[in-house]
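Input set for joint prediction.
Command: fold jointly, output tokens.
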Amino acid sequence: MSTRPTRTLEPVPNPHPDREYEVEIECPEFTALCPVTGQPDFATITFKYIPGPYIVELKSLKLYLWSFRDEGHFHEDVTNAILKDFVDFIKPRKLQVTGKFNVRGGIYTTVRAEYEEGQ
Amino acid sequence: MSTRPTRTLEPVPNPHPDREYEVEIECPEFTALCPVTGQPDFATITFKYIPGPYIVELKSLKLYLWSFRDEGHFHEDVTNAILKDFVDFIKPRKLQVTGKFNVRGGIYTTVRAEYEEGQ
Amino acid sequence: MSTRPTRTLEPVPNPHPDREYEVEIECPEFTALCPVTGQPDFATITFKYIPGPYIVELKSLKLYLWSFRDEGHFHEDVTNAILKDFVDFIKPRKLQVTGKFNVRGGIYTTVRAEYEEGQ
Amino acid sequence: MSTRPTRTLEPVPNPHPDREYEVEIECPEFTALCPVTGQPDFATITFKYIPGPYIVELKSLKLYLWSFRDEGHFHEDVTNAILKDFVDFIKPRKLQVTGKFNVRGGIYTTVRAEYEEGQ
Amino acid sequence: MSTRPTRTLEPVPNPHPDREYEVEIECPEFTALCPVTGQPDFATITFKYIPGPYIVELKSLKLYLWSFRDEGHFHEDVTNAILKDFVDFIKPRKLQVTGKFNVRGGIYTTVRAEYEEGQ
Amino acid sequence: MSTRPTRTLEPVPNPHPDREYEVEIECPEFTALCPVTGQPDFATITFKYIPGPYIVELKSLKLYLWSFRDEGHFHEDVTNAILKDFVDFIKPRKLQVTGKFNVRGGIYTTVRAEYEEGQ
Amino acid sequence: MSTRPTRTLEPVPNPHPDREYEVEIECPEFTALCPVTGQPDFATITFKYIPGPYIVELKSLKLYLWSFRDEGHFHEDVTNAILKDFVDFIKPRKLQVTGKFNVRGGIYTTVRAEYEEGQ
Amino acid sequence: MSTRPTRTLEPVPNPHPDREYEVEIECPEFTALCPVTGQPDFATITFKYIPGPYIVELKSLKLYLWSFRDEGHFHEDVTNAILKDFVDFIKPRKLQVTGKFNVRGGIYTTVRAEYEEGQ
Amino acid sequence: MSTRPTRTLEPVPNPHPDREYEVEIECPEFTALCPVTGQPDFATITFKYIPGPYIVELKSLKLYLWSFRDEGHFHEDVTNAILKDFVDFIKPRKLQVTGKFNVRGGIYTTVRAEYEEGQ
Amino acid sequence: MSTRPTRTLEPVPNPHPDREYEVEIECPEFTALCPVTGQPDFATITFKYIPGPYIVELKSLKLYLWSFRDEGHFHEDVTNAILKDFVDFIKPRKLQVTGKFNVRGGIYTTVRAEYEEGQ
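tokens >
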């Protein structure tokens, strides 16, 4: 598992905490390094969540994703790590994180991890 | 939560109140202001509902959506506020409102809220 | 509810009445008038049904849809009216009628009505 | 119902009869005649099946579909007839046959029939 | 059933074995020979799996798929054989392998096989 | 050549008569009748013109196109007739009219006519 | 060169013989036989022409294309033969015929032949 | 011609004034009001230019386009007015401005104006 | 430049040698090896030619392209080599060969070479 | 103009220097920083060139583009700078470099620069 530097995601109070609704956030500009070759990797990271007490502040999300730019990460690991951070900071009722990585060696990889409160 | 000015949606009697059917209305020309920067935001608002006693009059819906043009609204909040107004005025059996907002800072946000009579 | 003129849909015997199968018929050339402004409206009408004793004769369906050309109809009403006629004449086990109307005032409307025998 | 000439589909032993798997075969080059006007009709025929003891030999399937070229067939009937032949010769556990016919008189027709072993 | 040469897929430890997540790997560059005519066949092979103790190392997967290049294989058989190998080496909780083969004789064939641990 | 009823297109003064610029107007809701069978025909009519002293008023263009609704017209003829009317009323420097007609009998027809001032 | 049976295309008087305009006719339902294997071939035949004294009557064009259904034709030859027939019967000022044939053996073939009056 | 308020576009020195190169800027979020009905209009404004001594500063372009938000403008006029402003402030060697307006009354309008230095 | 093994393309007499017409042949199933790494490369090879005395026999073209399967070739070189062979065997009046290679290292490469008789 | 660090592109001898042919290379994974805000920018850089004595070695091109990852660059400037470097190292007869940058502030920017030997 990758060593994770200190990152933060800023929670803001959910304006409609009484209602179950879904927020989907697509970020096509994720880039990190391949931990084996050091070469840049590119991905689209998508969050789909049902807010609990908080929603995520978008600028902090942008900064959060940029913080991976110079680090080495494996596809399967980084997608799960992002899921964990989002759960820790934003405490959603439900969350799905998808990492759709650019083709490498003629192969396209997508990783999809899910969290549900109380499971 | 945003302060909501007085807006109205005009209900017209449902011509087939005995039958459960679905109406989907897509409005790609929604615009409001960002409450933080004051800059224009753009979105497609989609309504999907099963009418109860009323259906929505389309011209009043158009005017309703225009009334947001010069106001500041957060994505998550305004989508839920529109849902509430539609429920108050049109009293549908079931309703889903989706706000698909234009990219900002390389990030695409979609908010989807739902209502069901008696829940 | 609109006053419906006398229209007919010609039933032909179902060649495989012992089997549940689905027929989907898409008609992108439906046009009627707006009952308020008198201006032409355009729609794609789609039928999806499981035949009972009959299937619909296609030429009679074409003539049936043409018969709306010079009449005023509201979107929600006409879609339900077409459903009723199809049920009366063809007696399907199950039927879904969808009317996807062309954009008006920047708004796209779709109406979807369903029928199931014995419900 | 159309009179069916003698046609055959060649079964070959299923190489993995112990496992439920799905085979989908799309044939966009089906043509027959309209039984009313004698004019050519065109369709894409798609088979989706879970093999039982056999899988279908593709060359025999091609010849089978060509054998309709000079015959008159109604859309609903021919799709069900093809389903029956496939069941008789290949004995699948489950089968769906879809006939998607080219537009005629501004109308697109699709027929979908299904078979399940033991039902 | 085809005679399978000795092939390997390299397992690497799953970095998040405590969590059910999905990995999808699409490989559009699969080629083998037709066992009847000796002519090249082309396919896109897609793996969708929930990892158990291991995830698959991508370079070994690429080499694995290349090893079919000079061998004759039937569509239905090779898709199931690849499923078996993946299960043997990577021991996933759940796996779906899809082989989408290029058109031959005007016919498109797709084979989809599934595995679930403990079934 | 079809007998043309009295139709009008309203010219409004070109706000920038000193400059050559292009206006393209696409009207996907044109319908007339087939002069042989009396059945409805549907087309998209597109105008591409360089204004001279006038530009066309859009509401009058809409009414102009609706006036064909109950008349019989051949594809080649009506496209040229529309070109002539536009030239008579709006006096463009250059004009291209395209009529893209819906499929009939498995055949798609497009007619494209052009005018240039002084030729 | 193939032996050509007697076929006809019906010319009708050009309603606007004084003007150069273009007619494009797309026919996606052409089928003939492969002269080597006897197997059906499928193509989309497109005509693009500037009419001279005549335009082509569409029903006769449909019948003309059907007349190839049971004959063997090579791609390059049949496209040129169709061009010659069209020139003989319709006497266009300019003509382009394109035959876009369905994939065979993993290969897609398109043939494009042109005629210009007086060349 | 519309009365134009005082607007500015900020020129920045062209970093490669010795070379002819092209810059294309697409702005899908333009909105103004209809000068007749007061209803919002929406358009995509695209600039394609060969810089002379300056290039346009993007933030000032964004503010420039926002300044139309509460004003009434005709399609043909506003596109030419934007062209003039760009020429006045940025002094390009060549410029094309395209306004692609959203559908109104079933009609799509696009206006394209051009400027070339010394003409 | 690569050492070229003995390959052949079979010419057949042009059935319409008196007329300039174009033949386009798209072959999406080309594969060779990378001369540096030995790994498979994939490409779509497209021929666009105006026949002289001959046209190419399609089966021989398929075999010709297969003959590269086990050889190492650079993108720029192999595209030009194929052009030369086609000119030598088929003697076209004009020829364009395009090799569109699959992505490698995040980079897509296309090579386009042309020949014209007498230049 | 940006200060350019020392970068290199490796030339390899053109295998067919006697012939004019075109090479197109698309690189969708370019990223640099905004020189004003320090935020990451993303672009697709495309090279289209007619080789002179050399062609570009692809691995060196990949490394060349990566070298911009941590530097600040303006869109117009970096596109021209890349053009200059390619000309210096590879000495093409003709070259076009296009930088298509991701949306920022609702605005899409594309820069296209060209070089031709002897001009």
